[in-house]
Design goal:
Rossmann fold; 2 domains
Length: 504
């Protein structure tokens, strides 16, 4: 346990290994901050709860994030901020949530270490930067500065309305994405004070965070704010046109019994967020508003107009087990399975059954999981991977299929979000040597990519780039190995059936 004392503007930490001085206070463009020391030997400085924008409350609700004010003096940045309002959580929640956290191994501002900026998932309805699994100390110990931040969610992020669009003069409903851009702008201005290099920034995210990364790679507002990108289980995704987002917003206003007059926005901003119908489940994902997003990523890929940055893109073997309750029950018998496939895929059903030929109830379960995984995550990942052929930068694909021995729920498999603890090195302390080795490999691949734009390095299996004529990928299992043409026949089929727009 670290005992922190502020004395004359300097912070000291009493560690088991002796007295260690931190590197606070750090001077930012809005004031000074002091933090604490963490890591196995107190070798990483951590700063928590730094404001990167003004609180988006009152008149600033449903507006682009505004600059944070200078707080004067030294801000003791030793506690995470409240998390964004969302479904039930034990953590304190507040609309005043636009804060970020920094883990740095640098001992001076002159080091200019590579920077990794994490964007959390949660379907744009829940999640936060302070989730335990996202602790940045292990990544920082591998020579990068790690930044995580909160962004607005659900109805506070995704509510669009013609009156809001008129007020802004540039669309509405993209507040979560605008928060992410504001955080990246803060990194550009301030990260050098923590020993980071503002010109060597990697953004990475999972699920909704991966979709956000895909959106940021094509947003005109994010140009120059990052140099590399990693998409975990969230390529492209479903982005909402402004007209559709505004129509949904008008429906919400009607449900609340309010009239769309000149006082509507004032009335809405005066209400508590929980007063909005189904507020916690209102999707806050990216809107093609003509400002932060001017078109779907598919259109950018086709023309090579996305940001020309190296990318890592991939997904997990059994993503769909995470969504079973939401996406409907899995058929129980072979007969039910075949009937369900026939109903869903029509004239293509025979081909689907040939590729997923369940012969027992156990087969039905895993073939159904595979269909849902391949048709959603496989198709999405490959669409973006092939979309990146239109820019010179290289791209790498991964497929995470490692399942630790003694996994608690064998029906979960290698589900959605399973890779996160491995990427952050936050696997349980009692993990096996094999599990620790897989995690260490992922940490090294990810941080090497952040350092150089290429994940390859001595001591790890070669990871070939994904290229035309050689659609190679890294199978992250035991052993980790390079493979080729991940689920090609299955992904070809689902691309043809489900997502013609994803074909390249």
């Amino acid at each position: 346990m670290i005992r922190k004392i502020l004395t004359g503007g300097l912070m000291f930490a009493a560690l088991a290994l002796g007295q260690v001085q931190s590197q606070g206070p750090v001077r930012l463009d809005t004031g000074r901050v002091s933090g604490g020391l963490v890591g196995s030997t107190g070798n990483v400085s951590v700063y928590k709860g730094i404001p990167f924008a003004a609180p988006p409350v009152g008149e600033l609700r449903w507006k682009a994030p505004q600059p944070a004010k200078d707080w004067g003096g030294v801000l003791e940045a030793t506690k995470f901020s409240a998390i964004p309002p969302q479904r039930q959580s034990a953590d304190p929640q507040s609309e005043d949530c636009l804060y970020l956290n920094v883990w740095t191994p640098a001992k001076s501002a002159a080091e200019r270490l590579p920077v990794m900026v994490w964007i959390y998932g949660g379907g744009f309805t829940y999640g936060s930067a302070s989730t335990r699994i996202y602790d940045g100390v292990h990544l920082a110990e591998h020579g990068v500065v790690l930044v995580s931040f909160n962004y607005r969610l659900n109805v506070l992020a995704g509510f669009a309305h013609p009156l809001l669009s008129k007020e802004s003069g540039r669309g509405s409903g993209d507040y979560g994405l605008l928060d992410q851009i504001a955080a990246l702008q803060w990194v550009k201005r301030n990260i050098q004070a923590f020993g980071g290099n503002p010109d060597n920034v990697t953004i990475f995210g999972e699920s909704a965070g991966g979709i956000a990364v895909s959106a940021l790679v094509v947003s005109p507002l994010s140009d120059g704010l990052f140099q590399k990108a990693i998409v975990e289980s969230g390529s492209a995704g479903t982005l909402t046109p402004l007209e559709s987002a505004e129509a949904r917003g008008k429906e919400l206003v009607t449900k609340m019994g309010l009239s769309a007059d000149a006082n509507l926005l004032t009335a809405l901003r005066e209400k508590a967020w929980k007063d909005f119908p189904d507020a916690a489940n209102y999707r806050g994902g990216p809107v093609i508003d003509g400002y932060a997003l001017t078109d779907h990523p598919n259109a950018f890929w086709a023309k090579g107009k996305q940001h020309n940055v190296p990318m890592i893109i991939g997904y997990n073997h059994d993503e769909a087990t995470f969504f079973l309750g939401r996406d409907g029950e899995i058929p129980k018998t072979v007969e039910e399975y075949e009937a369900s496939v026939g109903q869903r895929f029509g004239e293509s059903a025979k081909r689907v059954l040939a590729l997923y030929p369940a012969k027992s109830p156990e087969d039905v379960y895993w073939d159904e999981v595979a269909i849902r995984t391949d048709s959603r995550f496989g198709v999405g990942a490959r669409a973006q991977l092939r979309g990146e052929f239109t820019v010179p930068s290289k791209t790498w694909e991964y497929h995470f299929s490692y399942l630790a021995q003694g996994a608690r729920d064998p029906k979960r498999g290698v589900s959605h979000a399973s890779e996160l603890a491995y990427v952050f090195g936050t696997i349980p302390a009692e993990a096996t040597k094999e599990t620790r080795e897989v995690s260490e490999a992922m940490v090294r691949y990810w941080t090497q990519f952040a350092k150089t734009g290429d994940p390859n390095q001595a001591g790890l299996p070669e990871w070939p780039a994904f290229q035309k004529g050689n659609e190679a990928y890294l199978e992250i299992a035991q052993p980790i190995r390079a493979e080729k043409d991940l689920n090609r026949e299955k992904t070809d089929l689902f691309t043809k059936i489900i997502r013609p727009a994803a074909r390249n």
